[in-house]
Amino acid sequence: MARVHARESPLPRARERHRGSSQDATLPHTRQDVANARHTHTRQHRRQKGPVKVKPAGESGRSGIHPFKFFKIVWKSTSYLSRAVNILWPFVPAAIAVRYTLPDQHVLIFSLSYLAMIPVANLLGFAGQELSRKMPHMAGVLVETTIASIVEIILFIVLLLKGQYYVIKAAILGSILATMLLCLGLCFFAAGMRHDEPTFDGAISEVGSGLLLIAGLGLAVPTIFYTSLKSVAGDTIDVTLAEVASKTTNISRIVAILLVVAYGAFVWFQMRTHHGLYDAVFEHDEKRDRDGHKDLAKEKLTLTECIIALAISVALVSIIAITLVHEIPAIVLKGGVSDPFMGLILVPLVEKAAEHLTAIDEAWDDQINFALAHCIGSTIQTAMLNAPLVVIAGWGLGLPMDFNFEIFDIVLIILAIITVGNFLRDEKSNYLEGLLCIIVYVAIAVAAFFYPTPIVAYEHALHEFGGGH
Fold this sequence. Notes:
This protein has 22 helices and no strands. The protein has helices at residues 2-7, 11-19, 31-46, 67-76, 80-85, 91-101, 106-132, 137-148, 150-161, 165-192, 202-230, 241-273, 275-287, 292-297, 303-326, 328-334, 339-351, 353-364, 368-397, 407-425, 431-450, 455-467.
């Protein structure tokens, strides 16, 4: 015992005291911390039997499908907040029934579909979370974020096929704002209610905030190009407004490809070259989970049940998304809701519901790094993968989808990214920062509510609504 104590150096403890409150003792700071985390992780996997090594947090102890257990586990969901959302399930058949029986009740159909999307998205997010629990940490976070984005991708594709370009553009930026300000603010607030200054690791925040800034600047390039040349088209330079629009579309397609490449490099960075650091951070986060013992003890879905839940939720999401998008022109014309408010606020809130619930629950359970990974990862995926894929899909279909946003929208995005980046810089948060993020989001929502519908979007809504009636 004397030899063991002699080997221990007071230097790490002294360094820890000098770091101040911006660091958490549970986070890995040295190579030995990472090595210990890997050793523990390996030891846990050795206890399992069978050809597929599943993390203890995702082991169900069953195989195949058991209907009663399936519905029981789905109903319980991951948290009290998610379970409360399941109360909205009756709105799903109601929305589908009203769509076909009362096709002229546009406000009612839209309202029911909007509420129905929340439990369906929650099921999709829960199935993705159950599947991610069976995987290594970094792969699980990526899979969970990608599955939760299926709602967003389906909505974008349906809007694209309907020609709702303005709503798509607003929804892209609105999705970034909702996750980056509202969801992150709620996570900071929830974590701050249990700790004076919750801390998180720079591996999550620094890389994430840097990528967000790059993505925001990339999305802004076509808008800046179009706005700069629009006012002088046909005047001081030999170019028409139509040519400016065509060049802006081409620039948007090139930017979309570049953003997808950048996202691929980000995934490679996380999954291959630096995965050990991320795995160690998440393993330390898992150890300080307040409900960790409950997660290990509770019943879990089997792999087959996860796939079935995903199939059901994707099918329902598609049906509800088509219904929701179909009613947007009528709501804009007769419901008193502007296109900017619809795209920037209403659509993103419902498409991101599942991710928000998951992240808030993780922050409340003292897993702030997981919460940040979901918030920042989801935002990056929207800006650098989902949005570019919509432009590329429009390119393939011969549709003029581009990144020519409203100045109002793109300026808000850049300012929000800079604001959030400042909050992430010191690797700690508190409930005040969370509240400030929420207040900023509400202020943007108020501005979007009073922002008038552009004439192009209004004429498209009039054509869609009038053409079908």
